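Retry 2 of 3 after timeout on previous attempt. Resubmitting structure tokens to design endpoint.
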């Protein structure tokens, strides 16, 4: 629930505002507040438990495409890495129309495609649009380049997260390639 600094309620509201700006209905947003999944950059979450929550959400919302972090979590955040690990586990253990038994909860999943956002080194991360030629030359399954309008929409959505906008995130919003270009691969 984003409660690492005891700001869970504030961060939930910020998430709702951000999703609203991106055109995501509140009914499609699920915030998990589970004692075994604490918001903590040093804690790796339980793979099976997290996979169960994610698979339930995928099934309940008929999701056919998920975009997630890669094994590096883009920033090395342990919770981000855990999301990747849980989705990889789900893909490996829940093929089409089968059940996944985790924590005594049975989830029947019609599996979807998973795209993994590729982490890049620090230099490439802050090249912004200058990284486009490198990204075009490197192998990958998908490359998304946002328009100027889409980039501004992403910045507005990020600005909704006031409690997390520390000085380095302002630099991120100005110069990070992830604000304009994202290379992804299929999991």
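Retry 2 succeeded. Sequence:
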């Amino acid at each position: 629930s984003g409660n690492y600094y005891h700001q869970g309620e504030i961060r939930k509201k910020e998430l709702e505002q951000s999703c609203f700006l991106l055109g995501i209905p509140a009914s499609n947003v699920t915030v998990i507040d589970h004692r075994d999944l604490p918001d903590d950059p040093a804690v790796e979450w339980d793979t099976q438990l997290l996979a169960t929550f994610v698979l339930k959400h995928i099934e309940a919302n008929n999701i056919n495409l998920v975009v997630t972090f890669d094994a590096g979590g883009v920033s090395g955040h342990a919770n981000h890495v855990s999301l990747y690990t849980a989705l990889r586990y789900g893909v490996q253990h829940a093929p089409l129309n089968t059940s996944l038994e985790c924590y005594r909860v049975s989830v029947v999943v019609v599996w979807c495609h998973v795209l993994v956002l590729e982490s890049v080194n620090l230099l490439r991360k802050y090249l912004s649009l200058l990284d486009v030629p490198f990204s075009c030359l490197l192998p990958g399954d998908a490359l998304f380049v946002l328009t100027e309008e889409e980039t501004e929409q992403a910045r507005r959505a990020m600005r909704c997260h006031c409690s997390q906008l520390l000085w380095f995130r302002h630099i991120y919003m100005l110069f990070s390639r992830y604000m304009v270009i994202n290379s992804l691969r299929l999991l």
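Attempt log closed. Residues 45-116 form one domain.
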